[in-house]
Structure formats: structure tokens, C-alpha cells
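Exercise 7.
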Amino acid sequence: MEVREVEFFRGKLRFLQPDFHRISVDLVLFASRIKGVKGSSLVVDLGAGFGFLSLVIAKRWGCRVVAVERDERVFSLLVENIKLNGLEGLVEPIKEDIRYLKLKGADVAVSNPPFFPKDYSKRDGGFHFEEDTTLKDFIVSASRVLRDGGYANFLIPSFRLGEIFHYSREVNLHVRELTFMFPTQRKPAKLTIALLRRNLPGQVHVNPPLVINEESGGYTPAVEEVLENFLR
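Solution. The predicted structure, written as C-alpha cells, is:
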């Protein structure tokens, strides 16, 4: 496994990143739109990988984060990244399958689950594809770990939005906010940020669109603002 060190937010966070699973601007933007977190929160990162979301949340809000990851390769990097950024007192790594996690009473759950179903036609392997753990498993796990009223934040492909609505109803999670992420203004939304609340139904609010790139190239001002100022 090839690993290299990368910096984000002008060096405020550093990560040992494997060559097969890299941080994208989509994940950075998702981190900036997570809802329900404050300094006293207990946050659970379901499928934490090598720790990007966990460390960003702990650094931004100073709260406790439980980072759950079962893959031995990236779990070792998760542990190293916590140490690399001096966040041992805030981020607790747990090597566990999210389907069997016993933790309860969390205020916030976050997840960037594998994007594509196992039988997806464009399958090419890697961390973006489901193996034995499905999107439904992540939704069920989020409901199980959250307290009533707790927040579940998901980053998913837009074509799987129907699954979020379908599976969440079965486990007392309710979709409350959606943010559609567009590669450019002229292209369809490929990703969606979904905010759900446990046992707290209500109307669904659709936020203004989040456009990543200018048609002429380069990031939009909204994205540049996140990269520059989200972690001060």
C-alpha cells in the first residue's frame, strides 16, 4: 500500500492518505455542511476510513468523535492520523463493523458510505463500491447509535436518494434537509447531502444548490470560501 502525506486547510490538518482512497473536494464540502454538531456533541463517524471527517469535525468543533472503521489497512492510518494531528483526546478509533456497533445515545452520525451498489454497471473495484455492507446498513446503524432528535448526515450519489427515503422510514429516521452538489451549473447533480433526524418528522427543506466548478475552470467562490475559511 502506497501512502503519502497531504495537507488541507492551509496545513491545519495533515493526513496519511492511501493511493486507493483519496480525499476529494466533495468530501471537504460535505464536512462543511454537517449539521447538529456543537462542542458538547458526541459524533459517530460510520465508516471513518483514514479519518478525514472525524478529524475535521473534532478540529472544527472541539467535540468528541468516535471513528468506526473495520478495514485493517485504513484503520492503521486512522490511528496514525489522530496522532499526527494531536487529536488523541477527542477522536476515539474503534475497529468494528458498523452493522454490529453497540454504541448508543450519540448526538450526530456522519457517513460517506460506498457510493455504488455491488452490481453497479460501471464497477471497477475499490472503496466506492459496496461489498457485504450496504447503504441500508449504514442508515440502520445511524438510527441505532443516535438519541431521539439526533442528526444523521449522509453524502450519497443523487441517484440513490430514493433509497434514503425508503430505508430511513423503516428505522424512524426522517429526511429533513437536502443539498444537491453540481459539478458545474450546466451538469446534473451527481451528489446529495442528506440530513435526517431520529424520531423527529417534519417538512423537507431543499437548500440552495452547491456548484463546485466554474464553467471556465477552477472552483466557484463558494468552494474557495470553504477551502480558505472553514478551519480558521
